């Protein structure tokens, strides 16, 4: 149907066997590593910081797609770049000076993404849509893996696709949360370009085959 990009979420990996799981993603048809950074302030959970990300980067053979679920992300952009980030997505809801943060990300040589929570309307991205490379649309409330997919996401994807086309922008639509064999095809049909999958990949009996199944949507 489409050349969809697959970004397994390392948050769902086995942290006692992180190198093994990173090498599994390397050997799969996945395109990116999705790295969720949580600070316990912006979202009610804490994930991992720079040492773990640097350890992942040491073994990763594919780009690191970093999703910052943190307050004051502008303080850490250079350090995330230095830790291996290829893409950096910051939350619309966490940035007071969004344009400044976008250009800060671009100035360090990374692709710039905006992440939005499920309740954040698409039209709020109108003023930045031509300045970014990626929109990371949350299809669950951020903070924890394994949550129930929010059905309204399909319409939001269609609305975002329309906004991108109306502005002649070159922006990828990434969906994060609740992606599986049922939601994946519908998301791609609605206009999604990148699917983030965590539990669905890492709890599968054969994660490599599961990634390939998503890739072939």
TrEMBL record:
The active site is at residues 36, 176. Pathway: Carbohydrate degradation. Substrate binds at residues 9, 67, 143-146, 176-178. Gene3D superfamilies: Aldolase class I. One of its GO terms (cellular component) is cytoplasm. The keyword Cell membrane does not apply. Keywords: Carbohydrate metabolism, Cobalt, Isomerase, Manganese, Metal-binding, Zinc. SUPFAM superfamilies: Ribulose-phoshate binding barrel. Its EC number is 5.1.3.1. The keyword Isomerase applies. GO terms for molecular function: D-ribulose-phosphate 3-epimerase activity; metal ion binding. Pfam families: Ribul_P_3_epim. It comes from the Bacteria. Its cofactor is Mn(2+); Fe(2+); Co(2+); a divalent metal cation. GO terms for biological process: pentose catabolic process; pentose-phosphate shunt. Binds 1 divalent metal cation per subunit. NCBIfam families: PRK05581.1-4, rpe. HAMAP family: RPE. Belongs to the ribulose-phosphate 3-epimerase family. Catalyzes the reversible epimerization of D-ribulose 5-phosphate to D-xylulose 5-phosphate. PANTHER family: RIBULOSE-5-PHOSPHATE-3-EPIMERASE. This is Ribulose-phosphate 3-epimerase. It comes from Cytophaga hutchinsonii (strain ATCC 33406 / DSM 1761 / CIP 103989 / NBRC 15051 / NCIMB 9469 / D465). The gene is rpe.
């Amino acid at each position: 149907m489409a050349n969809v990009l697959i970004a397994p979420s390392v948050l769902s990996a086995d942290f006692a066997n992180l190198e093994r799981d990173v090498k599994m993603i390397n050997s799969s048809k996945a395109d990116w590593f999705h790295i969720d950074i949580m600070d316990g302030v912006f979202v009610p959970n804490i994930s991992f910081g720079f040492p773990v990300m640097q350890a992942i980067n040491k073994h990763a053979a594919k780009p690191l797609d970093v999703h910052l679920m943190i307050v004051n992300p502008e303080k850490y952009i250079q350090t995330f770049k230095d830790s291996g980030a290829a893409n950096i997505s910051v939350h619309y809801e966490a940035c007071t000076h969004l344009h400044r943060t976008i250009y800060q990300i671009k100035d360090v040589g990374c692709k710039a993404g905006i992440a939005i929570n499920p309740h954040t309307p698409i039209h709020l991205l109108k003023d930045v849509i031509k300045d970014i490379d990626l929109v990371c649309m949350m299809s669950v409330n951020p903070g924890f893996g394994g949550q129930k997919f929010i059905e309204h996401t399909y319409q939001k994807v269609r609305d975002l696709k329309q906004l991108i086309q109306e502005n002649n922008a070159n922006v990828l639509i990434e969906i994060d949360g609740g992606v599986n064999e049922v939601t994946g095809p519908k998301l791609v049909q609605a206009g999604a370009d990148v699917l983030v999958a965590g539990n669905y990949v890492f709890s599968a009996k054969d994660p490599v085959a599961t990634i390939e199944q998503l890739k072939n949507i």
